[in-house]
Specification:
The protein is of the alpha/beta class and 493 residues long. The chain has 2 domains: 6-143, Rossmann fold (3-Layer(aba) Sandwich), CATH 3.40.50.720; 176-411 and 434-476, Dihydrodipicolinate Reductase, domain 2 (2-Layer Sandwich), CATH 3.30.360.10. Helices cover 35% and strands 21% of the residues. It contains 16 helices and 16 strands. It has helices spanning 15-30, 52-63, 71-78, 93-102, 121-130, 150-161, 179-190, 192-197, 220-223, 227-245, 254-267, 274-279, 298-302, 415-425, 434-454, 469-476; strands at 6-10, 39-44, 81-85, 110-114, 138-142, 169-171, 203-211, 280-290, 293-295, 313-319, 329-335, 342-349, 369-375, 379-387, 396-402, 459-463. Helix 5 (121-130) links the parallel strand 4 and strand 5 (138-142). Helix 6 (150-161) runs antiparallel to helix 15, helix 10 (227-245) crosses helix 11 (254-267) and helix 10 (227-245) packs across helix 15 (434-454). The protein is globular, with a radius of gyration of 24 Å.
């Protein structure tokens, strides 16, 4: 069966397209997941006159796709790609020709991926409607950030909603397309073992971390005035919190999953006033060293003359006020220029009420942990205490039970390819509903408004460290600590 589709990447020669979308599509084509009949249009300010193989070779030289660059495969893929010169703020002859090209295959799915600034969302969708490119087979993908605050997000949702139905609108969060996130849902809702343990009765707390060792390279213009709260917490981290905390859906379909995620966002305890000062830490990286190399400060990277109040680090403690999670803190953390790059969720269970092993009290036993790592590689594991092999019964050690499913047959999909193919199928299960976006902004806006009202500067932290010491105190005052997994780089608090 032919699964060919048309994909239009607005901003098709920009960073997102070059670094993520084109490499994902090429890998999908090489693995047989994207049909040879698929057409990919890359919009640009002007048409591309050069050789497409040369263009893609340059693109893939940096991304280094795992499928390699065999001449035959690359040439076939290049035949599927066209760069189109297209203005996104006015119609004209270029749009007439573009619409005619898309209408050659009126009955196949067409995906309009808006990899452009949100300021262009409305005009682009309006032009798609004007040229009748928003029919039943059309879908529009909105790349984050969706707005700068609640009001702007509502305006975008309203404006896009004039031209595309909600069933045609796909708000993408690539974290939700990661294999480990899919496995989290499968493990939770297909095994009674986890469901019986997934509550305040047995879970002590949950940590969600997204750490980067890079600064704002290539994103300086966007990042200043945006910051880590808007860039990461409002979308990625709160979406992961929803998936961890949601109730079992009646069915694994888009509406059922979204209903349960909305319940979580509605149950998030609002942080206001002194609670923000106590439970939210924001920082900005200063000079230091990462992986042995000296690096400058955020101010240096942006070449700013005056101090900036944009945060590059956020750590916070949140609570979900419902029966399942009452009393269980959720610790969220994200930052730039940290010692390592990783994203993971750690579910830490309560300690045993009493240890029968001589010399092992509750403090000596390491707690059970369920670890879901999203990057740099997918990984699922359980940490538990067992008897040390060959030793006495009271000699214990911590072991890790690997729950990964190894796929070396080409069936494993990257997050962007998975989400593009879901869009083609019209499956919104892994996408964000407009109500989720607006509830998340409502929760985050209170914190940002408090910062603005106080006028405080973010706390400085040295590049190559784990952020301001206040983030460490956020845990230690609760007699807890951040979990640092062993990796190729040394992680230390």
């Amino acid at each position: 069966m032919d699964n060919a589709f048309d994909l239009v990447i607005f901003g098709g020669t920009g960073d997102l397209s070059r670094k993520k979308l084109l490499p994902a599509l090429y890998a999908g084509y090489a693995a047989g997941r994207v049909s040879k009949g698929t057409r990919i249009f890359l919009t640009s300010r002007s048409a591309h006159a050069g050789d497409m193989v040369d263009f893609l070779t340059d693109v893939f030289a940096k991304s280094k796709p795992a499928c390699g660059l065999e001449d035959g495969c690359l040439a076939e893929f290049a035949n599927m790609v066209t760069v189109v010169g297209l203005a996104l703020n006015k119609g004209g002859a270029d749009w007439d020709a573009f619409a005619a090209s898309l209408n050659i295959h009126k009955n196949r799915p067409v995906v309009h991926f808006l990899a452009v600034p949100p300021a262009l969302f409305t005009s682009t969708c309006g032009l798609l409607a004007r040229y009748k490119l928003n029919g039943e087979q059309a879908r529009v993908v909105l790349e984050k950030p969706l707005g700068h605050d609640l009001a702007s997000a509502q305006a975008i949702n309203h404006d896009v909603g004039q031209y595309f139905k909600e069933s045609q609108t796909f708000r993408i969060d690539h974290y939700l397309g990661k294999e480990a996130v899919q496995n989290l849902l499968a493990l939770r809702f297909s095994n009674i073992l986890f469901e019986r343990l997934w509550s305040a009765h047995t879970i002590d707390h949950i940590q969600i971390t997204s750490a980067e060792d890079l600064g704002v390279e290539g994103r300086a213009g966007f990042y200043e005035g945006t910051g880590a709260m808007r860039d990461m917490v409002q979308n990625h981290l709160l979406q992961l919190l929803c998936l961890v905390a949601m109730e079992p859906p009646a069915r694994m379909d888009a509406d059922s999953i979204r209903d349960e995620k909305l319940k979580v966002l509605k149950s998030l305890r609002p942080l206001e006033g002194a609670e923000i000062d106590k439970n939210v830490v924001r920082g900005q990286y200063g000079p230091g060293a990462v992986a042995g190399e000296a690096v400058g400060s955020y101010q240096d990277d942006l070449k700013l003359d005056a101090p900036s109040d944009t945060e590059t680090f956020v750590a916070l403690k949140a609570h979900i006020e419902n029966w399942r999670w009452a009393g269980v803190p959720f610790y969220l953390r994200t930052g730039k220029r940290l010692p390592d790059r990783f994203a993971e969720i750690v579910i830490q269970f309560k300690p045993v009420p009493h240890s029968p092993h001589p010399g092992w009290d509750e403090g000596g036993l390491k707690p059970n942990r369920f670890i879901i790592r999203l990057q740099p590689e997918d990984h699922l594991a359980l940490r538990m205490m067992v008897k040390n092999h060959g030793a006495k019964v009271e000699a214990l050690k911590e072991v890790e039970m690997n729950l990964d499913v190894v796929a070396d047959d080409g069936s494993r999909l990257g997050p962007y390819l998975r989400l593009i193919l879901d869009t083609v199928r019209g499956d919104q299960s892994l996408f964000v509903h407009r109500d989720e976006v607006e509830l998340a902004w409502r929760w985050v806006d209170r914190i940002i408004a408090h910062w603005d009202a106080k006028g405080d500067q973010p706390i400085g932290y040295q590049s190559g460290t784990w952020g301001p010491y206040q983030a460490h105190d956020l845990m230690t005052r609760d007699k807890r600590e951040w979990f640092y997994e062993t990796s190729k780089k040394t992680r230390q608090s």
